[in-house]
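#struct-pred

JT: dropping the chains for the assembly here, can someone run the whole complex?
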Amino acid sequence: MNRSSQKEQTEKIQRILLAHGSGGKAMHQLIKTTIGPLAGVEVFNDSAVVDLTDFNGKQIAFTTDSYVVSPIFFPGGDIGSLAVNGTVNDLSMVGAKPLYLSLGLIIEEGFPMELLTRVLDSVKEASARAGVRVVTGDTKVVNKGSGDGIFINTAGIGVVDKNLNLSPMNVMPGDVIIVSGDIGNHGVAVMAERNGLSFEPPVMSDTRPLNGLVEIMLEHTRAIHVMRDPTRGGLATTLKEIALESGVCIEIEEEKLPISEQVKGACELLGLDPLYVANEGILVAFVQKDMSKSLLEVMRSHDAGRNANIIGDVKASPSGKVLLKTKLGGTRLVEMLPGEQLPRIC
Amino acid sequence: MNRSSQKEQTEKIQRILLAHGSGGKAMHQLIKTTIGPLAGVEVFNDSAVVDLTDFNGKQIAFTTDSYVVSPIFFPGGDIGSLAVNGTVNDLSMVGAKPLYLSLGLIIEEGFPMELLTRVLDSVKEASARAGVRVVTGDTKVVNKGSGDGIFINTAGIGVVDKNLNLSPMNVMPGDVIIVSGDIGNHGVAVMAERNGLSFEPPVMSDTRPLNGLVEIMLEHTRAIHVMRDPTRGGLATTLKEIALESGVCIEIEEEKLPISEQVKGACELLGLDPLYVANEGILVAFVQKDMSKSLLEVMRSHDAGRNANIIGDVKASPSGKVLLKTKLGGTRLVEMLPGEQLPRIC
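RK: done, full complex below.
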């Protein structure tokens, strides 16, 4: 073998090939040597069988999300940590304790093995941080030009107390609305990376697992009526969803919204409204008024809730509306994100 | 609005837009009017909470698969039915009763709404046929050129008896190997469609749910040691996997392999070895010899097992090998699919 074909050979094994998705030898080797160990699983079976005896009498929560974020690496995270945290958080929002994840990879032919390794490392690290286990997975490869590097699907299962029922149906006039942290970080971090902008200090994605925070919140009080993580569409869209589903009116105050100066500045620069910018590490909780102050203290005692704040409350009418009281004393009607402000943000 | 912009407008709402994946209003409408009802779910929550009280003391099986098949419609099925049946079958192979599915869609901008509707109809029909429910989902849209029409991820959960343990570790010399039906149909159907070939009568994909068949098999005997559905990589790759994992030698007879004349002919034409062609509606079972004849009868009584056949048995050595006794009396060593015979077959 001459030097150039050696180089080609080296190049070849460092990229994903169609054969890696064919179900045959190349795929088995990839799973055995790379995906399995790096994602933190020993055997990558088609189906995992898990024992939930310790959780007898609980209900099962089940969720799925695909991640197509572009670019796949951004300040504060990457598609791997995002895929783990996002699914952990979806489970957490119904009050479930997340336990097991699946990992479905759709990789474009030619994707560098080194980047796959970094993404899988990140999956492993994020799983360990959230205390969940990747127990089953799948790898598909599509031809060059039929994908975009890597897409990841994670599904997740967790266990929920039978007597816990978090739902917009529980929301009542008088409820207090708490946001667990600064808004807008994830969307701004990804948009900045996509557009080659850098801020000093950089705006970091807030991607993080919220199960620890949710656990201490539910230990403190069961007077929480509903929780949501305002991801795509931002806080505005999430609040509007809850207003519509519960038939109440939500009133929030602009000056109570936790938001960093950097994100504020970046949003002005990028022409974004932070209320519509995606978040990946905060939640909004609707809680009975008499428990709201103490819950806020509990939340602020947790790293993921340090910047938690009460941002408004619930009125009986006008039903299905979200009202924003601006700093200047006006009132603005908040609607869902109308179009495609931030495609492929997660 | 003049006629041409009206037409544009009509055209616009009939295709998937980036806004459909943005988390905002367009996405909510798409889910509410199209994805939710068509996929057969009323509320498309981020997380579903399911009650498994009826299955107290059982274990949970959990699996995931992404589907990137090209083309998305082929004789006998489409990406929608494939995604449901594939995940139902992965659960069935560990002896689980499949109950709930998640549905993750990654759609390319510009994908015709009419095709999405057809795919979702197919998801609904296949779910009804298999007796499973789609309870949670996710929709992402990627820019034109960053995907290929539609990719689907389904994850699934089911329940398994605690005392049921299907594993290659149980396979023993003397075990008899049964295949539940004709091999090669799915791969040939997709390849024919992809290459614009048509056979008369057409070769149809065998995509179908196997949970019904598995149920009567396990009712009949618990002497089944392991089951697998030989999908990507075909029967050869699956048998080689089992030989390696169990450390036994697998001996099969070419003339016992159920295969239709059409698939045989098509494989010759396309230059494919049917042993390596993907299947989506058959299983291979390793069973204790004394139960094999009666199990075969039971399988043949079921629509999905009509063409079941005993194809060989298990020897102690040489360990990890698969031997094929050819019709001409020779013996051939069977290895895993070495390369990329059939990319994007599922």
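JT: nice. The domain at 168-333 of chain A is CATH 3.90.650.10 (Phosphoribosyl-aminoimidazole Synthetase; Chain A, domain 2). Confidence is low (pLDDT under 50) at residues 1-6 of chain A.
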